[in-house]
Specification:
Largest sheet: 6 strands, antiparallel
GO molecular function: nucleic acid binding
Shape: elongated
Helix content: 25-40%
Domain Retroviral polymerase SH3-like: 58-119
Number of helices: 16
InterPro entries: DNA/RNA_pol_sf, RNaseH-like_sf, RNaseH_sf, RVT_2, SH3_retrovirus
Distance between the termini: 83 Å
Protein name: Retrovirus-related Pol polyprotein from transposon TNT 1-94
Strand content: 15-25%
Structural class: alpha+beta
Number of strands: 17
Strand order of the largest sheet: 5-1-2-3-4-6
Pfam family, one: SH3_retrovirus
Radius of gyration: 42 Å
Length: 527
C-alpha cells in the first residue's frame, strides 16, 4: 500500500514514513475480513467517520493562521496533503515553498492534482499535441464547459493546530531512528570501538571492581596437562519502559560449554555408581542429611509402617510445621529412589499433614528409624532383561477410620524400578476382588504409557515386551472375561473392563504373587 501511494502521487521515496503512517490510519478504518468490523470500531466501540478521508499526496490550499493574515496579499499557501494529525482532528501538510511541515484544519483539497506527479505534465503535453494535429484535419465545435474548478468543502472552522518549520531530512532521520534498534555488542572489541564505548568501559570497570570486592575467585596453580577454561564478556543494555536506556551492564562469565564432560556421579541429588553389569542409584547421603537435620538418633527398625500407629483418633497435637518439613523431605526421597516407603509416605502419613497428632508423629519418627537402618538400599539396573515388568497390588479396607482401599504398582526395566505409585482409590470397593481389579486397571494405564515412552527412545531396537502381574485370580478373570454380569457392571462402566481392554490384557497379563518378587508387598502395612 505504501508503494502504491508513493507511485500514484509521485512523492519522493524519502516520504515513505508519512506514507506508512497514513496507510495504517486508513487500514484501521477498513472492515476486517474475519471480524466483519473495523479495528477502529472494535477499539472505540463505534463506527469511524470516513467523510474526512482525502487522497494522499494531492494539492491543498491551507489558510494562513490569524497572526499571519493581512488585508492585502494571499490568504492561503500551497501544500501537499501527507497524512493525519495524531493528537488532534487536523491534517498534516508539507509546504511547497520551503518543504516545511504543518498541521491545520482549514484547508481546501484538489484531489485530482498531484504536484509531485511528473507524469501528469507529460500526459498533458501529449494531449495538447494530439489536439493540434487533429484540428488540422477537421474542426469540431467544442462543448462549452465551466472554467470554475470544483473545490472541496473545508474541514471545520479556521483553526491551525500547529505550524512546524523543519527540514525534510531532519524529519526523515527521526522516522528512520524510530525503526532502528541497535544491537548489543557481541565481543569486547565491538564494545570498546562502538559509539557507546565510554559507557561500556565504565560498565567493565564496575564489573571488575565487584569481582575484586566480593573476592569471588581463588588464585591457584594450573594442574599439569590441564587447559584453563576461557571466559568472555557479556554486554547488555537495560531499557526503561519508555524505550530509553537505563544503564549499561557488563558481565564476565566462564565459557562453560567448552569444558569436556566427565562421568556423571551425582544428578539432582542422586548418586550414580557404576557396577560390572550396570549401574545403581542411591541417596544415602541425602538420608544422612535428613537424620542430622531432624535429630534422629534412635535405634534402627526393619519395617517402615505399622497400621495401629496411624489413625484419626484425637491425640496430643504436635507441630504442623515440623511434621510438614519431614514429610516433604522423605517424599523427595520416595519419588527418586525409594519405592519401599511409598505406602507409608504417600498413602498414610502425608494425609495428616494439615493436622498431625502424637500418633502420626510417632509413626513418622518410626519411618526415619527405618531409613536409618536401610540407608544403603539402592536401585540397581542391568542390561537384561529388556522387559517392562509390572506388579500391582491392593490393600482392601484395613483402617477402621477409612473406607477407601489403596492401589499400588511398581514397574521394572533391566531389573530396576522405574515407576511406582501408592494412592487411595477414588471409589469404594466392596470386596477384595474389586479393589484388586481397580489396582490392576491403574497399573494397566501406566504400562501403556511406559511402553509408548520406551518405544520413542531412538536407541531401542524394537517394541518393548510388557509383562503385568497381579496376585488376584478373580481380578484377572474379570479383566479377561468381558461378558455382561449384573454384579460387576459398576466396575465395567467405571474402569473400562470391555472388549478392547480385555484384548489388551490377553497380551501381557499374568498371575504372580508380589511377595515372590519383593519378599513382601511394599503397598501394605504390617498389622
Amino acid at each position: 500500500m505504501m508503494n502504491a501511494m508513493l507511485l500514484s502521487s509521485g512523492m519522493p521515496d524519502n516520504m515513505w514514513g508519512e506514507a506508512v503512517l497514513s496507510a495504517c490510519y486508513i487500514l484501521n478504518r477498513v472492515p476486517h475480513k474475519k471480524l466483519d468490523k473495523t479495528p477502529y470500531e472494535l477499539w472505540k466501540g463505534f463506527a469511524p467517520n470516513l467523510s474526512y478521508l482525502k487522497v494522499w499526496g494531492c494539492l491543498a490550499k491551507v489558510a494562513y493562521p490569524d497572526f499571519r493574515k493581512s488585508n492585502i496579499g494571499p490568504k492561503t499557501f500551497d501544500c501537499v496533503f501527507i497524512g493525519y494529525a495524531q493528537n488532534s482532528a487536523a491534517y498534516r501538510f508539507m509546504c511547497l515553498l520551503d518543504n516545511s511541515f504543518c498541521e491545520a484544519r482549514n484547508a481546501e483539497f484538489f484531489e485530482l492534482i498531484f504536484p509531485f506527479n511528473k507524469m501528469h505534465d507529460s500526459l498533458a503535453e501529449t494531449s495538447n499535441n494530439l489536439d493540434t494535429s487533429s484540428s488540422s484535419i477537421t474542426t469540431i465545435d467544442e462543448i462549452r464547459r465551466s472554467k470554475r474548478q470544483r473545490i472541496e468543502r473545508s474541514f471545520g472552522p479556521d483553526f491551525l493546530t500547529a505550524f512546524i518549520v523543519q527540514d525534510l531530512d531532519r524529519i526523515n532521520d527521526h522516522v528512520v531512528s524510530a525503526y532502528l534498534v541497535e544491537e548489543d555488542p557481541k565481543t569486547y572489541v565491538e564494545a570498546i570501538t562502538s559509539i557507546d564505548s565510554g559507557f561500556w568501559k565504565e560498565a567493565i570497570k564496575n564489573e571488575l571492581d565487584s569481582i575484586m570486592t566480593n573476592h569471588t575467585w581463588d588464585l591457584v596453580d594450573l594442574p599439569i596437562g590441564s587447559k584453563p577454561i576461557k571466559c568472555k564478556w557479556i554486554f547488555k543494555k537495560k531499557i526503561k519502559p519508555d524505550g530509553s536506556i537505563d544503564k549499561f551492564k557488563a558481565r564476565l562469565v566462564v565459557v562453560g560449554y567448552t569444558q569436556k564432560e566427565g562421568e556423571a556421579d551425582v544428578i539432582l541429588g542422586v548418586k550414580i555408581r557404576k557396577t560390572e553389569n550396570g549401574f545403581s542409584l542411591c541417596q544415602s547421603h541425602y538420608i544422612e542429611k535428613i537424620l542430622k537435620k531432624f535429630g534422629c538418633h534412635d535405634e534402627i527398625l526393619e519395617l517402615p509402617m505399622i497400621l495401629v500407629h496411624v489413625s484419626r483418633r484425637i491425640r496430643e497435637i504436635v507441630s504442623q510445621a515440623d511434621y510438614a518439613k519431614i514429610i516433604g523431605s522423605v517424599m523427595f526421597l520416595m519419588n527418586y529412589t525409594r519405592p519401599d516407603i511409598a505406602y507409608a509416605v504417600s498413602s498414610r502419613l502425608s494425609r495428616y499433614t494439615h493436622n498431625p497428632n502424637k500418633d502420626h508423629w510417632d509413626a513418622l519418627r518410626r519411618l526415619l528409624r527405618y531409613l536409618k537402618g536401610t540407608m544403603n538400599l539402592c536401585l540397581h539396573f542391568n542390561k537384561y532383561p529388556a522387559v517392562l515388568e509390572g506388579f500391582c497390588d491392593a490393600n482392601w479396607v484395613t483402617d477402621n477410620d477409612e473406607v477407601s482401599s489403596t492401589s499400588g504398582y511398581v514397574f521394572t526395566l533391566g531389573g530396576g524400578a522405574i515407576s511406582w505409585k501408592s494412592a487411595k482409590q477414588t471409589c469404594i470397593a466392596r470386596s477384595t476382588m474389586e479393589s484388586e481389579f481397580i489396582a490392576l486397571e491403574l497399573a494397566g494405564q501406566e504400562a501403556e504409557w511406559l511402553r509408548n515412552l520406551v518405544g520413542d527412545v531412538p536407541l531401542w531396537g524394537s517394541s518393548v515386551p510388557v509383562s503385568l502381574h497381579c496376585d488376584s485370580q478373580a481380578a484377572i478373570g474379570i479383566a479377561k472375561n468381558y461378558a455382561y454380569n449384573g454384579k460387576r457392571r459398576h466396575i465395567r462402566i467405571r474402569h473400562g473392563a470391555g472388549e478392547g481392554t480385555s484384548k489388551r490384557w490377553d497380551n501381557f497379563l499374568g498371575v504372580c504373587e508380589i511377595r515372590e518378587k519383593f519378599g513382601r508387598s511394599p503397598y501394605k502395612g504390617v498389622d
